[in-house]
Every structure is written in structure tokens, then in C-alpha cells.
């Protein structure tokens, strides 16, 4: 009879561990999605900050790039790739203008917020992708049920 108690204990511990791991993997994926939403919001905010410079000499290219960033949603994979290209072009153009006297604290702080949101998103995606390779996650087929989070391939705006 004691072996039955040991067996029930082992099954209960294994079930608790599997439940805990599954909840952890799902929570990491939720956080990666939330971080991506926050990153997109910060990228949109930066583009809107750039749009305040409409009509200022020397900002024509940057304003056009900001308009292209705002115009491209990131709902499909192809749109996401286009958005990454547009964001990289905007970042490079902003670096060229960093010596311009019209450069304001708003643009610098927008770039810092984008860099921070990008770092947080990258950290959460790294953790979520790593959690997909846990044995329990593989046995419970969580990697098939949960969409794999993707990194944003954009340049760091603060260098």
C-alpha cells in the first residue's frame, strides 16, 4: 500500500511541475507579445515626433521616411519586414540630422524610449524562445500551440 502513496505523490509532483512550466511558457509568450505592442507604440511615437518638423528645412527626407513608417502596419510578415526597413532608414536619417540645431530633446528622448522598448522586447523574445525548448514544453506540444515570437531587426537608435 505504501507504493501506491509514493506513486500518487510522484504523479502529483510531475503534474504540478508540468502545469507550472506550461503556465510559465505561456506567460513568457504573452509578455513577448505585450513588449512587441509597446515597441510598435514607441516606434509610432517617434515617427509622430518627427512629423512635427514638417516644413523645416533639412527635414524633408526624415519627414518622408516618418510618413512611410506610419503608413505601414505590422500585421503580416511582409508588412513587418517593410516596417523594419522603413524604421532602419528613419534611424539612419535621424543619425545624420543629430548635428542639426533644430534637433530637439523630444527626438532624443523618443530615440531613447525606442531603444529601451527594443531591448525589453528582445529580452522577452529571447526568454520565450528559450522556454520553447524545455522538455515539458515539447512533451505538452506548447511550441505547436503558441506562435513563436519574432525579433525586430531594427538598428539601435541610440549609439
What's a concise summary of this model?
With 159 residues, this protein is mostly helical. The chain has six helices and no strands. Helix 1 (2-51) runs antiparallel to helix 2 and helix 1 packs antiparallel against helix 4.
Overview of the molecule:
With 159 residues, the protein is mainly α. The chain is 74% helix and 0% strand. It contains six helices and no strands. It has helices at 2-51, 60-71, 77-96, 105-131, 135-139, 142-145. Helix 1 packs antiparallel against helix 2 (60-71) and helix 1 (2-51) runs antiparallel to helix 4 (105-131). The mean pLDDT is 84.
The average pLDDT score comes to 84
Q: How many whole angstroms does the radius of gyration measure?
A: 22 Å
Give, in order, the helices and strands.
HHHHHH
Per DSSP, the total helix count is 6
The biggest beta sheet is recorded as:
none
Q: Identify the overall geometry.
A: elongated
Which bin fits the share of residues in helices? Answer: over 70%
The fraction of residues in strands falls at under 5%
Low-confidence stretches: none
The counted number of beta strands is: 0
The chain-level structural class is mainly alpha
Distance between the termini: 67 Å
List keywords for this structure.
159 residues, NUDIX hydrolase, mainly alpha, 0% strand, elongated, 74% helix
Furnish the topology, listing elements before pairings.
Layout: H1 2-51, H2 60-71, H3 77-96, H4 105-131, H5 135-139, H6 142-145
